[in-house]
Design goal:
The chain has 506 residues and is of the alpha+beta class. The protein is built from 16 helices and 16 strands.
Length: 506
């Protein structure tokens, strides 16, 4: 009997040692920083060897606990073999095949097989576990109540793993905590923050709270929209600020900034003393948020410097300028001269005297337009004209459902004279190609001048008639006689329409 036991001990020791050596070698090769299976396996190896030693002592001293010692030997050996096999399968074979298995799935598989192996070994050794469980109902209830939170966390971990709502390497935000999911275990999920902190969130909490998964959108690469805010004084037109910043952001690639969608600059709000802007870009490396924000700010600052646009001073800054009658008069004179310069380029105002031009200059209204805005629409009743100071305007005519560009106007040019003088609907639409600065002259202001000097109506009507006949002659190929006759008719017609529309005496 003793010889049989010794043979059994030798076989068990040899097989267990081989399993431990193989598993340890594989783990060291594939996971040089250590693997948790080695520690667990070592524990069962010690249990197995203690069982072997105990069985030998009991057999030599002829005690009655030989069966229990034999059970410990068999259980230890079975768990050593199970853990060795699990390590080889999950840490060697499956990774070589390109199959990734979650840590929690591995743990569940090993635990389930362990229960099966334990039941098989104990039943083969003559022990009935079902009877032991049945007679321990009270103990089972107490253990179940004490493990409620643990079971909740375990089920929460299983839920997170199998529904794919949170995955390892995802970047998440939970309350005020932002970090990368490093591991999902039975009880907790480990979140690594940018501050090199690892926060352990109970799984039960994660399935109950709102969790923001950063940078994830179906069918899209992982990237996260970031906002870089800045302020600019109201003295600088928003279109100019946006053009300068957006051009710089898109001019050359930046590390960790997505090309699609491209970065953009947006006017977000108007505060008491500043306009509030934001550069929005999409971050491709979620971990590099602050460094990339810094690179964006550097490019933003350089772009504003090149454009001569300083960042806004603090809201409490006070500008003090001595104001007196001489200064006010200089400003008024400079503004008035700008208005007169605009009127000089309008042919229909050539017959007017200096006083009449001064009167019209004071009546001009500053009218800026942003790029893409419709300044006037074909067929619209708009009784005023525009003098272009800066920018370009596209003149478009619609016919048969198609719109065609017929001219591009620039600084110093005007449009809308016929609507101002005769009340005709707009013959074309005007759209701002760029940001446009204009002066607008209303019908009422011009009407006052002509009513005080109705003799100016004739020369102005002649100018309009010449321009119209010139266009008709080119289009219809009129000869000199036809052109002269048509001009006389147009002068009479134009003057009659002006008098009728502006209420001038005949």
């Amino acid at each position: 009997m003793l010889e049989a036991l010794i043979d059994e001990v030798q076989r068990s020791q040899t097989l267990s040692a081989i399993a431990l050596v193989v598993m340890t070698a594989l783990a060291q090769r594939l996971a040089p920083h250590g693997h948790r299976g080695i520690r667990v396996l070592s524990g069962f190896m010690v249990l197995h060897l203690l069982g072997v030693a105990g069985a030998m002592i009991m057999r030599l001293t002829a005690t009655d606990a030989l069966d229990e010692a034999r059970l410990i030997v068999h259980l230890g050996f079975a768990w050593v073999v199970l853990l060795s096999s699990a390590t080889i399968v999950f840490e060697v074979i499956l990774p070589r095949l390109g199959v990734g298995v979650l840590r929690l799935v591995e743990d569940i598989s090993v635990a389930a097989l362990g229960i099966v192996v334990t039941g098989f070994v104990t039943s083969r050794s003559g022990y009935d576990l079902t009877a032991l469980i049945a007679t321990s109902a009270v103990v089972t209830a107490v253990i179940g109540l004490s493990l409620q939170d643990t079971l909740g966390n375990t089920l929460g971990g299983l839920t997170l793993q199998f529904d794919g709502s949170i995955r390892v390497d995802d970047w998440v935000k939970i309350g005020d905590i932002t970090g990368r999911v490093a591991e999902i275990r039975w009880r907790y999920t480990a979140i690594e923050t940018r501050n090199w902190e690892t926060i352990l969130f109970p799984n039960g909490r994660l399935v109950k709270e709102a969790v923001i998964v950063i940078g994830r959108r179906g069918g899209q690469p992982r990237q996260w929209r970031r906002w870089v805010w800045f302020n600019v004084d109201f003295r600088y037109p928003p279109s100019r600020v946006i053009e300068a910043v957006q051009g710089a952001m898109r001019g050359a690639p930046l590390d960790n900034v997505a090309a699609t969608p491209p970065p953009n600059c947006v006017l977000m709000d108007f505060h008491e003393s500043v306009a509030r802007y934001a550069v929005r870009y999409w971050l491709t490396d979620i971990a590099a948020d602050d460094p990339t924000d810094g690179a964006v700010r550097l490019r933003l600052y350089a772009a504003l410097e090149r454009a001569g646009i300083p960042l806004a001073l603090p809201a409490h800054a006070i500008f003090m300028t001595e104001d007196n009658s001489k200064r006010r008069e200089r400003k008024r004179a400079a503004d008035h001269q700008k208005r007169l310069d605009a009127l000089k380029n309008v042919p229909i105002f050539e017959p007017l005297t200096g006083d009449e031009r001064d009167q019209l200059a004071d009546a001009l209204i500053h009218s800026p337009f942003a790029r893409g805005e419709v300044m006037t629409r074909q067929g619209q009743q708009a009784h005023w004209l525009y003098c272009i100071l800066e920018g370009q305007v596209s003149v478009r005519v619609a016919a048969d459902g198609l719109e065609t560009e017929v001219a591009v106007l620039g600084p110093g040019e005007v449009f809308g004279e016929m609507s101002l003088l005769t009340g005709e609907p707009r013959a074309a639409s005007a759209v701002a190609i760029t940001d446009v600065e204009c002066w607008r002259l209303e019908k009422e202001a011009f009407q006052v001048v002509l009513r005080s000097k109705p003799e100016f109506a004739g020369p102005i009507a002649s100018l309009l008639a010449k321009r119209r006949v010139g266009l008709l002659a080119a289009r219809e190929k009129l000869d000199e006689t036809q052109k002269s006759n048509r001009l006389a008719e147009e002068q009479v017609d134009m003057l009659a329409r002006m008098r009728r529309f502006l209420g001038l005496p005949s």
